Amino acid sequence: MIFLDAAATTPVRREALEAMWPYLSGEFGNPSSHHSLGEAAAAALAGARSAVAKVLNCRAGEVTFTSGGTEADNLAVKGIALARQAADPSLNRVVISAIEHPAVEESARYLERVHGFAVDVLAVDGEGLVSIDDLRAAIRPETALVSIMYANNEIGTIQPIAALATVSREHGVPFHTDAVQAAGWLPLDVKALGVDALSISGHKLGAPKGSGVLFTRGRLRVEPLIHGGGQERARRSGTENVAGAVALSTALRLSHAEQPEQAARVSALRNQFIDQVLATVPDALLTGHRSHRLPSVASFCFPGTSGESVLLELERLGVVCSSGSACAAGSDAPSPVLVSLGITPETAQTAVRFSFTSTVTDAELEQAAVAVETAVGRVRNLAAPQPG
Ligand code: PLP
I want to staple 319 with a disulfide (CB 3.0 to 4.6 A). Which of 66, 85, 314, 381 is the partner? Predict the structure, then answer.
């Protein structure tokens, strides 16, 4: 099987598994306990926090461990907007882009539904890019937060985060970015990016599902979503997932160290794959930006097919990929991300996303490109009216 669905999830790296194992077995303590087992767990958690902080170029106290990317996004969007509103009741708007992951979009909609916020949605161009001028125009005195993703999970387009964050900062508005897909592939230095908050998910980069991180800058206040014993500096109560945090920090550290080399290698393979698919299926439409895209994502529409049928054929041919985001999979609605690019709902139904782990090989992608040609051909033959 050739696994080309890494944007949905990745296998746990051996190093991460080995690093977490002691905290699931012998060193199973609760970090809040005042005995040696608890102290060992607390030390492991502190070590994991420092390792994450090193990659993000921030202080350990600015790192909050969460149950994943979704929780990190929820905590950022709701937690920052509500904390700012508590300090200044005139703040009642948030700005997001039209192609955010539901974890951000639905958090903004929650603020609208339950707390009376207005949500300003920035359109994207045909390649999925947000305009810096549009952001400048959208920010108002009442804006509590801007949240724009670093790289999109369906089309891979990378936003100019540093420039967008600068605009936000000029207006004194905190800037959050969902870096769930970017982590492992793009630089994550929060000082260089100039962001005030950033979300990461462990299972996209070789740590287990159910581990995540939210960075929040300095004294930026965050209203907690989960109340209890005051863990994670009261930003996120609940006994900490020590093993998950250790695994995430290990996978993040390793992928960060490997990143420049792997990003260059996989980008080159991705470009070859894109060229091969466009050459053998000439009417295929590459979605997203040609160059400002994640090394790991190649996404297409194949007009005259259905994305789900192409997926089934590809799986028969030994290639596993996705018709869009894992969250939207199984839903009949066309992808809102693709529709935001100006793609018709009919064409959006023909989308297939290929996303790569850092260990993908040349041979795998060559074989996959051949399978794409075969699968699209088969689906089109089946759809064509039969003679007689
Ligand atoms: N944000 C983006 C861009 C994602 O791609 C995902 C997962 O697909 C998430 C957030 C949610 O992360 P998690 O699966 O860890 O909840």
Answer: 314
C-alpha pair distances (Å), 77 with each of 56, 60, 73, 303, 345: 20, 21, 6, 37, 29
Ligand 1 mean position, distance from CA 76 (Å): 14
Ligand 1 atom closest to residue 100's alpha carbon, by position in its atom list: 3
What burial letters (b/e) apply to 31-65, b meaning 16+ CB within 10 Å? Answer: beeeeeeeebbbebbeebbebbbebbebeeebbbb
Whether residue 330 is predicted with pLDDT greater than 70 in this model: the reply is no
Residues in contact with 175: Cβ distance below 8 Å, sequence separation at least 6, in sequence order? 145, 146, 147, 148, 164, 165, 168, 169, 194, 195, 196, 197
Do 150 and 226 reside in the same domain of the chain?
yes
In this structure, the residue with its CA closest to atom 12 of ligand 1 is 69
Determine whether 301 is an active site residue: no
Give me 287's structure tokens.
């979605």
Residue 357 phi, psi (nearest 5): -80, 170
pLDDT at res. 266: 98
Q: Which pLDDT score is estimated for 331?
A: 60
User: Do residues 83 and 204 both lie within one domain?
Assistant: yes
Q: Give the Å distance between the CA of 383 and the centre of ligand 1.
A: 34
The residue nearest atom 13 of ligand 1, judged by CA position, is: 69
**Residue range(s) defining the domain that contains residue 300:** 259-383
Q: What is the mean pLDDT of residues 345-370?
A: 97
The domain that holds 332 is classified in CATH as 3.90.1150.10
What's the rounded Cα separation, in Å, for the pair 327 and 241?
24
pLDDT tens digits, one per residue of 73-96 = 999 999 999 999 999 999 999 999
Q: How many other β-carbons are positioned within 10 Å of the β-carbon of residue 224?
A: 19
